Task: structure prediction
Amino acid sequence: MILCTDDKGEQTENMEIRTAGQQKYYDFIEERAKSLRLGMIIWISLLAVALLAIFAGGILGYILAVLGIALGVLNIRSQKTLRSKLDWITDKEDFFNQLIEAETIEIPEYRLIITRDYVLRYRNEVLIYLLKDMAKVEVGIRQQGDYRQKTLFLTDKEGVRSEMASCVRREQESDFDLAYHTLHNRI
Result:
C-alpha cells in the first residue's frame, strides 16, 4: 500500500511519491504499512484456504472463512485509519516540505520527528500533533533502581498529556534532551 497526496490534497493509493517530504513521511510509516500489507496477505490467504476447504466438504472451511472475514474487516479498518492520518492537515504541501527542512529534528531512537509546526510519533500507531495546539512540554521523573527514568510529555490546551519519549537507559539521555529542548523551544 503506497499512500500519496494528489494535486487536490486528497490521499490516494498506488500513485508515485512526488516529493522528498512525501518520501520521508512514507519511510516514517513504512513499518506500519508493511504490517498492514502482511495482514492483508494473511486474511486473503485464509479466505482462499477456506474456499478450498469448503469445496472439500468440511466445517473447517466455514470456520476459516469467518476468521478470514473478521481479519479482513480489521485490516481494512486499520488501512483506512492510516490513510486518514493526514486528513486534518489543511496544507499538506507545507507539511511535507517541513519534513525535509534543515531545522527538522528526527530522533530514530524514539521514532519521533519534530518539524516547525508538527510532531510525528510512531509506536503502535502513527500520531501527528500540531504544536500550536500544545500548551506545554512536561518531564516526568520516576526512580528505577539506581537510575531516574524520564518521560517526555506534550500537554495540549485541554490538559491531555501525550507521551513522546521515555528515557530508560543512560545511553538515551542525549536524544531525550534533544527532544525536550527542541519541543520546549518550539512551543
